[in-house]
């Protein structure tokens, strides 16, 4: 039986009177790509912030790699990498300098950080632009740098919050291939996206959130089978069926 | 170590941002140059004295030399016709005419008169020239009175006239050098009248404060862009991140201060090596206090614009009340207000070293207050600073 690498149990988080996350529980097994989908304001980003130790939950517990976030956040941070939705980069630094800097923050020495940075720049197809200033990069290149930084320090679990938003098909495809390659190497990934075909292609299991709660969780195929023929139904059909068609935000 | 690396990274970013670099290094230098040009000379005013010398004798030359000897007075010689023409055209407002036989009359003891022609009230410059000329004429009158009286008294004593003249000239010279009634000049307040010591520390502290406080905007920007949040998901602790940002501000202020003080050292030669090191210590402590306040601003500001405005208002109040461009006397209404500005304590400490010849030990209270501001600022900002709302 596969090992549970992440266990989130009954997570709650409120901001004043607003319940952003309301009793969320799920597990992610080692080597799995777990999709977390939901409309805007569903509580995905708040959940990821709690899982990545940036935000403390009001109640509930999170264990990653056997370490409780409440009791041993430092050990948890040694196991994770985060690729945020925003391009959290230093635009005036080069691609290489960005990677080395975050690598150093992840505990690598300069030499090791440099070696890893070269490796991930190559993986992202950016080795020729290693010394280019990030501010001169295209959106797709920045997205790839954003993802490469998350891989620095060789994390065992990476949180990817909409890593392909707003980029061209070529860059998106490069990111897909990178993620599939990482899975093949045994990396565990929590993935959020608004592109349903992307989730369908990449994710082993998917949780759909709405109103701060998980309203469905299963494999993409099983989710599609819930509302019809899994070969003809799309994940978007499932999503709209479960979360409704009313506008959010 | 990671905190140090954050600071180094920030310094690298600072040195690469040409706009930021220009603002924080070139602008202070330009300000120093402008203020030096405006106030740095020996004389606060400059006037032209227009003179028509129709005598061209010994005493007219003495009068013109004495007029030229005044600080800020330039003598321009005109012919009588030029003077009348310029007066008619209002090109000049006052001309001093030294009449023919001016020297001859004086030597023979005959009364003689200078003629001053003016338009209207001659303007401020003309009035100044007139007062100076009247003063010089008065001095010449007194000297001739003394010569005449002494000559009269010693006429029948058998002392040679040459000896009388030489002795009299020596005594008059001594009297000019050490007059019985002299005038001492002093600048109100506690400040020095030297440009360098009066303005330079204020300009240095003003720009350090301005730049460091403005880094509050950079921290808020980092919070918006998510780099701070990303850093917190690395192995970096909140304390390391916080201390790293403080060190970054401190380093930035230090680079700026070092450049300005070294330039001052070279250009104005206002330091000895010892006072330079002492000034650098004061600058670092001041930068620490300003950095802590910068992080407090970043902690309370909700947006980059908000951070900028708070920083600008804070900086302007601080350098206005901090005795940056004028010394604040202890009995003035501004004195109490000046105590709320950290610039006051830094400027006082600089003045103790540079103007009063004191040492760091003499600046004790000022430095203790600055260190206190730094500690309180760090504690308060640590309590208020949030990387994400509701989080760390």
Give an overview in words.
The complex is a heterodimer of chains A (249) and B (392). Chain A is α/β, with parallel strands linked by helices. Chain A has a domain at 1-79 and 157-162 and 192-249: Rossmann fold. Chain A is built from 9 helices and 10 strands. In chain A, strands 6-7-8-3-9-10 form a 6-stranded mixed β-sheet, sandwiched between helices. A 4-stranded antiparallel β-sheet of chain A has the order 2-1-4-5. In chain A, a hairpin with a 2-residue loop joins strand 4 and strand 5. The longest helix of chain A is centred in the C-terminal third of the chain and has 16 residues, at 169-184. Chain B has 2 domains: 2-40 and 192-384, no CATH class; 47-177, 3-Layer(aba) Sandwich (D-Maltodextrin-Binding Protein, domain 2), CATH 3.40.190. Chain B is mainly α. Helix content of chain B is 68%, strand content 6%. Chain B is elongated. Chain B has 15 helices and 4 strands. In chain B, strands 2-1-3-4 form a 4-stranded mixed β-sheet.
Global Rg of chain B: 32 Å
Unreliable residue runs of chain B:
none
Averaged pLDDT of chain B, please? 82
Q: Which segments of chain A are poorly predicted (pLDDT under 50) over 5 or more consecutive residues?
A: none
Query: Which structural class do the helices and strands of chain B define?
Result: mainly alpha
**Count of helices of chain B?**
15
> CATH superfamily of the domain at 1-79 and 157-162 and 192-249 in chain A, please?
P-loop containing nucleotide triphosphate hydrolases
